[in-house]
Amino acid sequence: MTALEKEIQKMPKTQMISIMEQIWTELSKEENSIDIPDWHLEELEKTENRIKKGKENFIDWESAKEAIRNA
Fold first, then answer.
1. What residue spans define the domains of the chain?
2. Which stretches within the chain are classed as H helix?
3. DSSP code for 37
4. DSSP 11
5. Each residue of 6-60: pLDDT tens digit?
6. 15 and which of 11, 57, 61, 67 could share a cystine (Cβ 3.0–4.6 Å)?
7. How crowded is residue 41: how many other Cβ atoms within 10 Å of its Cβ?
8. Which residues contact 19 (CB under 8 A, 6 or more apart)?
9. How far apart are alpha carbons 71 and 67 in whole angstroms?
10. Cβ proximity of 40 and 48 under 8 Å
11. SS3 at position 12
12. Distance CA 33, CA 56 (A)
């Protein structure tokens, strides 16, 4: 574990979230400079095809979190 990772673990959760938001904001400014792996694009295409065929089910975020907790 790096020194930075150790320092992050010591931070209050609210500070961690704030830093994550700052990082995400910076990364999203340069979204075209991030290479997307081919397998990501393939999976997105598969999902889009399932949606078009009516073979994909959706649930709201609260239900998804509950399902994950109970898995």
1. 1-34, 36-71
2. 3-10, 13-29, 38-52, 61-69
3. P
4. S
5. 999 999 999 999 999 999 998 888 767 778 899 999 999 999 999 999 999 899 9
6. 11
7. 10
8. 8, 11
9. 6
10. no
11. coil
12. 31
